Amino acid sequence: MTNAHAKPTLRVDDVACFFDVSPSWFDRTVMRKPQRTLKAVDGLSFVIPRGTTFSIVGESGCGKSTLARMVVGLYQPTRGTLSFADGSGRDGFVRTQMIFQDPFASLNPRWRVGAIIAEPIKQMALRPSGVETQARVRQLLETVGLSGQDSNRYPHEFSGGQRQRISIARALAAEPEFLVCDEPTSALDVSVQAQILNLLKDLQRELGLTYLFISHNLAAVRHVSDRVAVMYLGRIVEEAATDEIFERPQHPYTRFLLDTVPNLDRPNRDRMQATVDLPSPIDPPPGCAYNPRCPLATDICRTAAPESHPVGGSLVRCHHAIA
Amino acid sequence: MRAAPLPNDRPDTGPVLDIRDLVVEFPTRRGVLTAIRGVSVTVERGEILGIVGESGAGKSLTGAAVIGLLEPPGRIAGGEIRIRGRRIDNLPKRDMMALRGSTIGAIFQDPLTSLNPLLTVGDQLIETIRCHLPLSRAEAAMRAIDLLNEVGIPSAELRLQQYPHQFSGGMRQRVVIALALAGEPDLVVADEPTTALDVSIQAQITALLKRICRDRGTAVMLVTHDMGVIAETADRVAVMYAGRIVEIGPVDDIIRRPQHPYTRGLIGSIPSLVTSHERLVQIDGAMPRLNSMPAGCAFHPRCVLADTRCRSTLPPLLTNGSGLAACWNLAAGNAVEAA
Asked: What CATH class does A2-95+176-316 carry?
């Protein structure tokens, strides 16, 4: 494991994902309505080294879940490539699994927990016999902090946090090296969120997993990540090591996000407020997409889209961030 | 004992909302489940009281009981709720309907489902205003514009003609707040008003609630699971666990020096933006179910300090520093340093 540490597991190279949201064929021919494209994700490039956690943060509609779905292969990128390094899976690929946001919707209510967790093992024939599959299911349940006897119960008998543990056990059943966690704690209470975040960290240490962690909760992101990328309207506006981004944010959007988070250490303060709502990704503003909300915006921001360039230890997409 | 005041008698002294020993229960086929077990709390004029707790703690039910919108078969089985001294928990449905909107305003979590998608925002506002105030349609429309301006919606005249789907999430929640204020209520019950919104929009809505509370002197009962929102918005906070208040006090004190072991765990489990800890404090286990409530202190199965008295006898809510806390370990005076 140690010699493979610096090797990237996932390399994302100039990936874009567009959706056709045009009006119907009839409207376009008769009413002369134009074709429209929603650029959910555009020009993303990053690398996730093995055994680390890479987080994506951003508001709703910024494209973070589209990215997660491309990584697990639920969407095909319109442009660019996502490539995994050689893994230790049976066929030489890195196996990926996903943990979803809502533990109430992501487990089949008619299946016993044991069957839910055994399904990937049976599908991929990871264990030769039924007895060994059952033993593996019990072992997985204990790994995520439940008891082996829980395999005979149904999902409705468990609380939200326990269900999310079952989701994690199901993801681990496929023996993945790479886990995509799409808002894994946002449906949970804070005390339960702490349990799940601690569990994810422990599993990473024990099994050498690599995580792509997607969240809008900046505090949770700070707690779990090694590297963080901030997305705004389909683009990464800033990417840096976790401490760097939280202690020395460079992009005005990152600074704004950090300032709007309720902070327990400073109660009853007046937060900075957004004056303009998030623009629609179908019709993004010209130039830098952030310019209508940005306090630093000048003429160049309204005409030219900034390129990503290094500032300090960060990669920043802003005309006004200068090294 | 003072006599029950007349409906139009509104003494300006005393709390706006006064809940005493509220008990809410749900009769089921397998027996009666008690969801709220004796909650007493007051909200003063111009004060924001935060109610915080995990799912199932009974915080939303407390709010629903005040608005008179407990889902059947849920019912108020004991205690009383008074608004400006007038008892409201035993009012007939019709009187409660008149009260709701005029004396009590309500803001719910999801702004899309609390607005009618088939009516323009103007129609909904005008209808609500005319329901509670004796105004003509034109006067009500003027008032609707004032309300939209007050909650910070630009070009209000134009916005009145639009439907809810033409508003963004944050703007919709502002419309809901305008609706809640339409009858000039003394008390606003806000149940998770920012949970469905992005953080950047959250900040706008909490600032708006604070401004309304300050400018109009409205009392606000803010129900949320988000300690961060409470920290920024509330004056006092009540922490609920398994249907009871376990700690209540000024927000700064509760956040800086939580006393009850549950509050301490709750605050410790929130990841910090300022420092990164290797491990978060976690409260093991989960809240007990209503049908298997433990004897004594409901928190004892998860509490590291639990002893024999905690397992047998319910701790009373006693003065502790600037607030109240229900814990035998604090009552005995051997307060333990924060872990």
From this structure: alpha beta
